[in-house]
Amino acid sequence: MHLIALNLPDLILSLLRATLPHDAPDDKDTWDWACLRDPAVWKAHGKLVADATQYLPGSFDRPPRNPAEKISSGYKAWEFLTYVYGFLPGFLRAIQKPHYYKHFCKLVLGVRIVLQCQLPRAQLQQAHELLVAHAEEFETLYYQRREERLHFVRQSLHATTYIVPEAFRIGPGSLYTQWAIENYIGNITREIKQHVTPYANVSERALRRCQANALKAMFPEFADHEGLPRGAISLGEGFVLLRAMEKRPGRIHAPAECDAITAYLRSINHAAAGTWDPRVQRWARVRLPNTQVVRCAWKECDWEACGRHARRARMLRGNIFAEVQYFFRYTIDNKPCALALVSVYSDPDPAILNESMNTLLACTYRGNRALRVINVTEIMAVVTMIPLPITRAESEHPNTDAMYGERYFVVEKVGLDVALMGGAVQDNMGPDPDDPDGDEMI
Question: What is the pTM of this model?
């Protein structure tokens, strides 16, 4: 946790802001990598980060605050993770020189791989190559074999080259790093009941927890089973359809929506494809097996117009990113199925993928021009899509707004499956003020 979430971000930001100490004859004016050195640029960058947090789903835990104002005010590890390994690849592209940017992206992609709970061997090999290349190139780009810059090469930088070999030796870091240890310490200390002999009491509480876990492992019926919210429908495989919902089916007036649903019925050779009455009963939310809650534009757009932060789900389906418009149920072969009407983003820009070492996925939002119906069980995870700042060259294009106005970059929650080990991911934006128990009907 400290290496990836605290030590490396401190080194990266110190370089970008040129806050590292220096000795003669080294001159900070020669630090061409310090793209955030100018106070005005740093302030504008901080505002960019603060504005981007409104796009984060609640499952992203603590959103990063404005680093220009809060970087030294107890910035949390999860904030650094989202900021450095989620936001920075998109925000640095427009202001950082290409060779420094590509070098940074190698670190980001390697970290994203090693923070998974399950580590495929093929991806581990790629991550090791990226992290080793990043460490070696750091000395060429920044340290440059200069004695007065020796303090640039910190121990944390060298430690990244051992992450993958250690994963092969003792498993994913989620099993032994501070994430698991500190989470357990926090849980067990909250159970202390005898403060006169706290250590003996903690030992007894830990023993009882181990015994309870062993019984639950041997007899699953002893495990606690959380009930569903009122009105929710289990779809199987961990998917749950959640309210709000319409009281009765309503007619669809948008031709693009009718065409998308009709095309789906034809694709499955449904008998009613040619005679379907365009009426559906819309649902607002779906909970995924990873406990993330997928929200839709149908409900969220109205609340966003009233000033609420954006919470619409940009979901991941294989290599496809889309925004959910709404959910609905339809009977297929005498079996009710949960479906989702989604607006599919364009494929990631190949040029940006190449310049970012496959780290930055930039897609264009196409609205009603790319509507499609999918089965809810095809949704893999909730991601966020953040507006991608344009480069100077792109700003000089005669049709800048038309070309780049609807372009977003993908931010997935770093270490999502690791976070799940501590319990269900909660929606930190809280319940709806008009619907605290999530059972609203419309």
Answer: 0.86
